[in-house]
Design brief:
203 residues; mainly beta; Immunoglobulin-like; five-stranded mixed sheet; 31% strand
Length: 203
């Protein structure tokens, strides 16, 4: 029998056990947090290829106010965080505040350790959304002002290539607006730009 343990957070249902045989839960849309299997191979060091393992698919969804998104964790090492951003915030607005230079810079030089540096992530209005500080101060992204969801640093288990199930997070959005969903594992978000958006419409 599958045991399901749930931790209650505001508007959140966090499934902390395997749910491959669990009953389906009503959701408005599903986001793959990391591509489903078979996942693309890691980008070779020194290549110009993007690190496609660290992506949300789709990376932008729209739901109605009060709707629910199910985030399915695929692969390893992920953490999920959600922040509200201004409605005109684009992917480029967030990317410009992350590590620049692609895998040639952000994933290959241990002397730089780009994921350990401080980044100030802002939205289209220039408002500060996340101050990452350094890895000493924040081993994972955990900027509290404006934070709507964080799994408290828990590294979530994802689905595997052998068919094992993983964690899922179901989040209900009760307020219209635009929301940044980001992996708070530093290397995934800061180096590889692992984030997406949820647009919530309605009065």
């Amino acid at each position: 029998m599958t045991q399901i343990i749930r931790a209650s957070l505001p508007a959140v249902l966090l499934t902390l056990a395997l749910v491959a045989n669990g009953a389906a839960q009503a959701v408005d849309t599903v986001v793959q947090f990391g591509p489903p299997h078979p996942q693309p191979p890691p980008a070779p060091p020194g290549s110009s290829l993007e690190p496609l393992q660290h992506r949300l698919l789709p990376d932008e969804v729209t739901i109605h106010k009060g709707g629910t998104v199910l985030f399915v964790i695929n692969g390893g090492g992920h953490r999920v965080a959600i922040y509200e951003v201004s409605k005109h915030t684009t992917r480029a607005d967030i990317e410009m505040d992350l590590c620049q230079g692609g895998v040639d810079v952000c994933n290959t030089d241990p002397g730089i350790a780009t994921q350990n540096l401080q980044y100030l992530i802002t939205d289209a209005k220039g408002d500060l959304i996340i101050d990452t500080q350094t890895n000493v101060e924040q081993p994972f992204l955990n900027y509290l002002p404006g934070q709507m969801l964080s799994a408290a640093g828990i590294v979530l288990s994802g689905t595997t290539a052998t068919g094992s199930a993983g964690h899922q997070i179901r989040y209900r959005f009760d307020k219209a607006g635009r929301y940044l969903v980001i992996c708070s594992t530093r290397g995934h978000s800061l180096n590889d730009w692992m984030f997406g958006f949820v647009d919530v419409i309605g009065n």
